[in-house]
Design brief:
Layout (H helix, E strand, L loop, with lengths): L1 H8 L1 H28 L51
Length: about 90
């Protein structure tokens, strides 16, 4: 066991082991990238089909949202009441 520690304490051996370890990491990463590129995961038969389009309508300058919504700003066509019937009082 003493010779093992003496081997590891040698500066030249530390450098060689460092280069070998780094090379092993680079080669392993390259092989993994090639494997993932050439053998992509297959589609499972239970894969869900895309959700059908949602039809949402709004009138009187209202805002209607349906389905998945992303973003933080919603803009409308303007503030006009031309398409609205006045409500009875």
């Amino acid at each position: 066991m003493n010779s093992f520690w003496r081997f590891l304490r040698d500066k030249r051996n530390q450098q060689v082991l460092g280069w070998l370890g780094g090379g092993l990491v680079v080669v392993t990463t390259g092989l993994w990238a090639a494997f993932v590129y050439f053998f992509p995961p297959g589609k499972s038969p239970e894969a869900k089909s895309p959700e059908p389009a949602v039809s949402v309508q709004a009138d009187c300058s209202a805002i209607a949202i349906g389905g998945n919504v992303t973003g933080a700003t919603i803009t409308t066509g303007g503030a006009t009441n031309a398409d609205c019937v006045p409500k009875p009082k």
